[in-house]
Amino acid sequence: MKSLNHHLKAFRKHVIKASQRKSFIHHRWFVEYHLLLVEKIAKELCQLYPKANKDIVLTLVWLHDYGKIK
Question: How many domains does the chain have?
Answer without folding.
Answer: 1
